[in-house]
């Protein structure tokens, strides 16, 4: 039996259709109203009843603000985010969303967690930071207390402090560094004519940031700062995809992955102690789709061990990197069946269906993710084109992690009104909103992505109930154990009530 919830709704239809037309051929207005209501009730949040007067008032206010944005000459979710960003920042809907308690961020990658502004203005100003420009005009950073020897396509390392002291305009130089560390540009259409071009820049930015982030003392501050940026955006919990890189000290000492996990655990503990209204953070260990099967087997085995040793930190496992140019989940099937063979309960949180190449092997990732019992689907951009996978996802209550800005910047969709998740949202498919790679896209927190989902993808019909359900979903579909979910829900509820009260 599929979708029992919907079946009960669907059984009303034939009855209604009997009354479809009155004798004069005019549809019955009362029946028409009823059908409209029934359709609306299927929307994400369509079953949420707004209880208090204050909630109803806020809902009406939001609707009014949205109407204004939709009738404005420039509809922001239809523009490229890089151009729309300054206008979104001025939007009253956006400002409300910033204040709203949004629950959890469930799909963010560790190398893109913290704003590039902080990386450049704080991290690259620390002593002993060296820079090198590669032949193809990329940058590498390295902390070293002596002159670094050539590595990573780099022959000529300069101490940043010395370099900056010779520059006329260090601010301009810093801005150029920020461009190296993100895909942000004023002219995205020209600079990124196709998906290949933007992915190339995307991967270069990751490599550029690596030398900064994998410096052990920086990583500690980086995690803390990352949680701070989320907390400031009224987010209370994080699940971070991470390759759990090794880290290095100034003298060349290398720390292993266990050190990285422990550091993440310690920083999270410190942050929650400093911010009692923050619930915590966990990691989804990820391997890159460029690896061979045996390499992935090793990562999976290690993840199984780490999941056993750090059950409160390690949430699960994922495969990351561009799906279209990487290997498929099915290619890795021997590696991905290892946890069960080893008697482990390591859950999967697979990226799947981040593609518009329908019918390719990559396009099957979405079904395979479900067959491997993924707990959530990262992106699931292709899900609307897979009716069976969509049914399975709904029946198994496996939500899609919708990252609207990522999909637009990486050129799967340009006008967000045309995002396939508009279908999922209008039929109440399980969904959470996330930001994927905030630093690379020039966002922080989730408010920008909530804005695009709420105004662009959801349209005028998405309402306060939609926002409520999306926020609650992020706790419900997190990897947290039941009692922590309940704690999170209660914490969120009290924040929500304060938020609603403050708006009236
Ligand atoms: C850089 O960040 C660290 C840790 O977050 C902070 O203690 C320090 O004051 C910052 N330095 C500057 C120059 O902003
Ligand atoms: Zn991702």
TrEMBL record:
InterPro entries: A_deaminase_dom, A_deaminase_N, ADGF, Ado/ade_deaminase, Metal_Hydrolase
Cellular localisation: Secreted
GO cellular component: extracellular space
Location of the Adenosine/AMP deaminase N-terminal domain: 31-97
Pfam family, one: A_deaminase_N
Domain of life of the organism encoding this protein: Eukaryota
GO annotation, biological process: adenosine catabolic process; blood vessel endothelial cell differentiation; inosine biosynthetic process; neutrophil differentiation
Signal peptide range: 1-25
Stretches assigned to coiled coil: none
Catalytic activity: adenosine + H2O + H(+) = inosine + NH4(+)
Alphabetical keyword list: Hydrolase, Metal-binding, Secreted, Signal
E.C. number: 3.5.4.4
Cofactor needs: Zn(2+)
Record has Coiled coil as a keyword: no
Keyword Hydrolase: yes
Residue ranges of domain Adenosine deaminase in the record: 195-486
Molecular function via GO: adenosine deaminase activity; metal ion binding
Sequence similarity: Belongs to the metallo-dependent hydrolases superfamily. Adenosine and AMP deaminases family. ADGF subfamily.
Protein name, entry field: adenosine deaminase
């Amino acid at each position: 039996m599929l979708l029992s919830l919907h079946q009960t709704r669907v059984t009303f239809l034939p009855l209604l259709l009997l009354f479809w037309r009155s004798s004069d051929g005019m549809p019955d207005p009362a029946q028409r109203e009823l059908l409209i209501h029934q359709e609306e009730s299927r929307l994400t949040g369509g079953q949420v009843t707004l209880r208090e007067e204050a909630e109803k008032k806020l809902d009406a206010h939001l609707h009014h603000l949205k109407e204004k944005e939709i009738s404005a000459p420039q509809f922001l979710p239809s523009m490229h985010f890089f151009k729309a960003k300054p206008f979104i920042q001025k939007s009253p809907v956006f400002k409300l969303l910033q204040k709203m308690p949004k629950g959890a961020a469930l799909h963010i990658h560790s190398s893109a967690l913290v704003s590039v502004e902080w990386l450049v203005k704080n991290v690259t100003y620390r002593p002993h930071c060296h820079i090198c420009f590669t032949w193809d005009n990329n940058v590498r950073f390295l902390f070293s207390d002596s002159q670094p020897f050539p590595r990573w396509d780099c022959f000529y390392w300069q101490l940043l402090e010395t370099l900056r002291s010779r520059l006329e305009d260090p601010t301009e130089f810093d801005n150029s560094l920020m461009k190296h560390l993100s895909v942000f540009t004023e002219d995205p259409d020209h600079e990124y004519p196709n998906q290949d071009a933007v992915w190339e820049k995307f991967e270069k930015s990751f490599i550029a940031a690596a030398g900064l982030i994998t410096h052990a003392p920086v990583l500690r501050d980086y995690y803390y700062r990352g949680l701070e940026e989320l907390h400031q955006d009224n987010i209370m919990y994080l699940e971070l995809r991470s390759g759990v890189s090794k880290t290095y000290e100034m003298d060349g000492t290398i720390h292993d992955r266990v050190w990285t996990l422990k550091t993440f655990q310690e920083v999270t503990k410190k942050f929650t102690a400093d911010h009692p209204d923050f619930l915590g953070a966990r990691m989804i260990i990820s391997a890159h789709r460029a690896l061979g099967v045996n390499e992935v087997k090793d990562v999976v085995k290690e993840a199984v061990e780490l999941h056993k040793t750090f059950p409160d930190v390690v949430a699960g496992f994922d495969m990351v990197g561009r799906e279209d140019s990487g290997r498929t989940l099915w290619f890795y099937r021997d590696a991905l069946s290892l946890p069960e063979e080893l008697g482990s309960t390591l859950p999967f949180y697979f990226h799947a269906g981040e593609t518009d190449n329908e019918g390719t092997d990559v396009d099957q990732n979405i079904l395979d993710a479900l067959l491997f019992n993924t707990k959530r689907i990262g992106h699931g951009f292709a899900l609307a084109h897979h009716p069976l996978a969509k049914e399975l996802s709904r029946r198994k209550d496996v939500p899609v992690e919708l990252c609207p800005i990522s999909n637009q910047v990486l050129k799967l969709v340009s006008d967000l009104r045309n995002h396939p998740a508009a279908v999922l949202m209008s039929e109440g498919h399980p969904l959470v909103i996330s930001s994927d790679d905030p630093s690379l896209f020039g966002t922080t927190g989730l408010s920008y992505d909530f804005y695009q989902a709420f105004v662009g993808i959801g349209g005028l019909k998405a309402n306060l109930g939609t926002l409520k359900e999306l926020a609650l979903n992020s706790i419900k579909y997190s990897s947290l154990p039941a009692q922590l979910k309940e704690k999170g829900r209660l914490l969120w509820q009290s924040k929500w009530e304060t938020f609603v009260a403050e708006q009236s």
